[in-house]
Every structure is written in C-alpha cells, then in structure tokens.
Amino acid sequence: MVRPRPLPVDPLAEAKRQWVAHGWTDAADGMTVVTSVMRAQQLLLARVDAALKPFALSFARYEVLRLLAFSRTGRLPLSSVVARLQVHATTVTSTAERLVRDGLVVREPHPHDGRAAMLALTAEGRDLVERATAALNADVFADPGLSHDDAAELVAIVARMRRDAGDFIDPRPLPEPL
Fold this sequence. Notes:
Blueprint: H1 11-21, H2 25-52, H3 59-70, E1 75-77, H4 78-85, H5 89-101, E2 105-109, E3 117-121, H6 123-141, H7 148-164
Antiparallel strand pairs: 1-3, 2-3
Helix pairs in contact: 1-2, 2-6, 3-5, 3-6
C-alpha cells in the first residue's frame, strides 16, 4: 500500500482555527473531536480492509463470523447478533444472506421460536474466520498505531462516551461469555 506524503499542516488544526475565526468557538472543540475520530476511523478501517481483502471479507462479515465463532455452539439467534453488534436488523440480515450464499453460515430454525432464525457457522466459515483473525491480529490489532498507555486511555475515553450515549450500562470487569 502506497502511503500519501504527509501534509505540512494538520488539516484538522486548520479547520479548528477557521471555526474559531468564524466565531464558532463554542463548537470548535466538538468539531475537532468528531472530525478527528472520523479520520482515525478511516485510517483504521483502511488497515482492517487491507488485512481482510485476501479473505474476501468486509469488516461487517468478519464481525458476524467472529461473533458466531466466539459462541459456545457456533450458533446464535439472529436477534442476538443484532443486539451484540449494535447494528440495524436489516444490516445483519443482509450480511447474513451473503454469508449463507458463500457457504460460511447456515440459517436454521430457532428451536423455541418459530418466527426467529438462528445463524450457525459452517466448518468453512470457522476456518476462514480463524485465518482472518490471525491476519487482523498480526497486521492491525497487535500494533494499532498507539502506545499501550495511549490505547488504554483512548478506549476508556470512548467507552465513557459510548456509555453516556446509552450504548451500555457499566459492565462487570469482564463480560460474561457468549
């Protein structure tokens, strides 16, 4: 991957300067936070996409496979996948349909609810997600581009933001296993 040459000035610092110069001082810090996080997301997603490309997986498809692989039986109700990934049901349904089409997941009837569906990982899906996880761990997660202390601080800050936005209630020190 060819990296672009760094800019001589941080464009987000310049944007903040412009915000202040235009009289939007009260919103300047917030604009800088939002655009900084969005740019960081772009940078991280580019690394994730590059690591997953050899496996023909998007991050959304990877997340569903990884979630199923983490479960005790390799299967979860579709509603549990929606809740745990915190995305809209139609997004998970669309992603699951592609995974089914590719033979990585099968859709099964729910054992207790005739209206609900279960997603179950196939052997091919399990093999693929394990190989993709090894690549993500080596190429992205082992070195996200921050020191250990900065990474911990960033995660804590974002967790407070997510909690305050209603993403979750303060969890136990470690979540319960799937």
